[in-house]
Amino acid sequence: MVKSSMSRMLAGNGLFYPIIGFASFIAFLYLSFGDLWVNYSKEINLSFVERNGTQFYVDGKVFYVNGWNSYWLMDHAADYSTRPRIRTMLQASAKMGLTVCRTWAFNDGGYNALQISPGKFDEKVFRALDHVIAEARRNGIRLILSLVNNLQAYGGKTQYVKWAWEEGVALSSSNDSFFYDPSIRRYFKNYVKTVLTRRNIYTGIEYRDDPTIFAWELINEPRCMTDPSGDTLQDWIEEMSTFVKSIDRKHLLTVGLEGFYGPKSPKKSIANPEVWAADLGSDFIRNSILSTVDFASVHVYPDHWFHHKNFEEMLKFAAKWMLSHIEDGDRELKKPVLFTEFGLSNDNEDFEPAQRDRFLKMVLDVIYKSAKRNRSGAGSFFWQFLVERMERFNDEYGIVPWENPSTYRLITDQSCRLAKVQGLLSTQVEHLKNFCAPRN
């Protein structure tokens, strides 16, 4: 009743509609530019990650990574209703002692596209990526940013080929023409330059000058099956890694490989999961040994690569797979090796929840032993972490880590173990100093 009387009074004085209009205008400003008023002044000062031989260093101290994948950060930051998930994920991960998140810095065509068409970008989505980087910095988390997808999800190389075909400049409709078509190479170089030179609207720092970014990843899981010799993909990696380094000499760079050995590798028959793995157009050693590539990347999905092995057999293979690549890092590449994706599917016929923890523990143990022995196995990244109410974005590998006490304990134990080897990073002191003490 009081409310209706006030409305009549305002209306009688001719003020009701102007006030409503002004309130609507303020709401519009907040939805459009609200983050400009968010306080990012509390961000932690970070230094660039450097490499010396087979190890990473931060501020002169060796750095081993306990990391994770949340590919969805930019996509969810583009929508104000889901943007709070970014802070929730980053804060929770920092509390677990995690230090690096791998995420997509691409979305080509489609919904919430960063690149709408070649050279045309959606500023709203770019601001979403700005927000992700600023929020990561605020929480002391570094980022590996991947620049394009070999798969069709979020556009990928398929979208680039489609754009070239629609513009009448494509040499072929094959998805693999992404790697050799001159027009598509120009599209991608333009994209890379635009991203690397982007000035973050919240921090005022160009991406190429921001130590929040741990590294750039050229492409997620590259394969060029139309040229199993590997020459086409190798040429692309050489050209694009050189191009990235011509713009940004401060950040580390990796390819984004799964880790398969190519047809000329002596390991193709003893380390690959099966015969098909040598015919994908990639080669772990050849692709990673380039001087413009700072560290190697490997994925670990034995249940995705085999269809007739039981869990124990897959676990044994995964351990050998990891040790083979660490050996390569030590002896052949003389570079760090990051296992940038690993996980176990809950869709496996014989899946039991305890198996996932056993698999995760095996991976983490290999990294810890590598760290203790100063070997090249420099870290691992869970695939993938989500927050609550994200079922639609989950796959058979995703977990909300704090919902499973045993998994949560594995993650935090690894943070404490690595901190014991390398010492606490300045970004970890608040969360781990007391947290790890009872375990040592």
TrEMBL record:
<keyword id="KW-0812">Transmembrane</keyword>
<dbReference type="InterPro" id="IPR001547">
    <property type="entry name" value="Glyco_hydro_5"/>
</dbReference>
<protein>
    <recommendedName>
        <fullName>mannan endo-1,4-beta-mannosidase</fullName>
        <ecNumber>3.2.1.78</ecNumber>
    </recommendedName>
</protein>
<dbReference type="InterPro" id="IPR045053">
    <property type="entry name" value="MAN-like"/>
</dbReference>
<dbReference type="Pfam" id="PF26410">
    <property type="entry name" value="GH5_mannosidase"/>
</dbReference>
<keyword id="KW-1133">Transmembrane helix</keyword>
<keyword id="KW-0472">Membrane</keyword>
<dbReference type="GO" id="GO:0005576">
    <property type="term" value="C:extracellular region"/>
</dbReference>
<feature type="transmembrane region" description="Helical">
    <location>
        <begin position="15"/>
        <end position="38"/>
    </location>
</feature>
<feature type="domain" description="Glycoside hydrolase family 5">
    <location>
        <begin position="47"/>
        <end position="385"/>
    </location>
</feature>
<keyword id="KW-0326">Glycosidase</keyword>
<comment type="similarity">
    <text>Belongs to the glycosyl hydrolase 5 (cellulase A) family.</text>
</comment>
<keyword id="KW-0964">Secreted</keyword>
<dbReference type="GO" id="GO:0000272">
    <property type="term" value="P:polysaccharide catabolic process"/>
</dbReference>
<keyword id="KW-0378">Hydrolase</keyword>
<dbReference type="InterPro" id="IPR017853">
    <property type="entry name" value="GH"/>
</dbReference>
<dbReference type="GO" id="GO:0016985">
    <property type="term" value="F:mannan endo-1,4-beta-mannosidase activity"/>
</dbReference>
